[in-house]
Amino acid sequence: MGDHDMIESGCSNRRYPVVDGTVQTESRSPEHADANAVGPPPNVWVVTDHEDGCGADRLDHAVGEPASQASPIGRGQHGGETLLCFGERLHGHEHCDIHSVSVGSVRRVRRTTVGRSTRRSVDAWRIGLEMDTRTTPEGTPAITVGVIGAGSWGTTVAAMTSANTTTQLWARRDDLAVEINESHTNSRYLPDFILPAELTATSSLEAIVSSSDVIVMAVPSHGYREVARAAAAYLRPWVPIVSLSKGLERESQQRMSEVTEEEMSGHPVAVLTGPNLAKEIMHGQPAASVVAIDDSRIAGELQRLFSTPSLRVYTNPDVIGCEVAGVVKNVIAIASGMAQGMGFGDNTRATLITRGLAEMTRLGLELGGDPGTFAGLAGMGDLIATCASTQSRNNTVGCRLGAGETVDEIVESMNMVAEGVKSSPSVLELARVAGVEMPITEQVVAVCHEGRSARDALAALMDRDAKSELR
Length: 471
Fold this sequence. Notes:
Strand order of the largest sheet: 12-11-10-13-14-15-16-17
Number of strands: 17
CATH architecture of the largest domain: 3-Layer(aba) Sandwich
Distance between the termini: 52 Å
CATH superfamily of the largest domain: NAD(P)-binding Rossmann-like Domain
Number of helices: 17
Radius of gyration: 25 Å
Structural class: alpha/beta
Shape: globular
């Protein structure tokens, strides 16, 4: 049965699209349908997929029996064995399940994870949104976005998406959630801005995760796994996860998409990255960003959600390259800041930026990234913005290190995380395992974690053996 095949429903004489053997109506149900319930559930799925992952050979019919009869909704044939399935797609604060009822020789299955492949999950999520009766004024499906993390960038992304669709923001602190809801401000992280009145906040992780169609993880790398694990308990099937974090996990050297796949398995994972300084985005200054995911349909939907009149969002299938670029540019920004803090001029900083781009590209290619990514917004674009801006936390840390402060003094005085400080040892370890030379990263680690002075680090870089630029 192809993606665009249609079947007739005896319940309402309507025709419904079938994707990977799944048919869905748009009606809603307030509760979970029990696997032994009498009569058809109000929200019908017909699943012609056998338990072992093979597709059913054919679909005989899809009829709703009278409520007085305990009857299945659909019937498929698989190797002479009858498989009868029904399920539901709930919306808003509800969740989704697949239920399979055994009749005769068919086994009973009740499961909350759906499908045998990411592709099946992606299709089901997309069709679920298309069949949802909620729509935007433009007629596109209404999607609820949940942003986890109310720091400066998480709050900024939530403010952006709230202009396009219903958006909720999770804050760890009750008082911050109250402030966002009542005063429409985030005085700790974005003190000079008024947030959209449409944006709501909560300190309940369960409330926001269980009611969202897209989850955006705006959590620093050092706390990402803990929050992802906690959120996973409340996730509905198929919901895409979008990471905003530009760091590596210290212990495992994993990118955040890899951590997400471990803690939130079975969900499509995307990355939003690029030269996006929070305050400039909040001011509405023209900018561009990249959403990276290897599924073009989800990429297009996320592109719509994150785009604003002043933010142009591109898509890129290269998740690895985009993440590596986002991580390494923070480390290089510290080095660039150190040069500025020591009083050196544009030649020195341009040298560090371009050689830093070479380090980024070498590592990214070795790990499987696309060369074009590192010349684009996620690579060169984000590197330039982070190394040049006084708004950049990593550049600021570097400037203060160059001026003679210790890393402990600097970190203690900041209320936001500079990812490059925490991620630099992981980047260096990842490079060593991959056999990639990263001399600038080595010196940043030496300054931030081994007590070397910024001046000695720069001298060590200049004392290296001469070689070809293209190596």
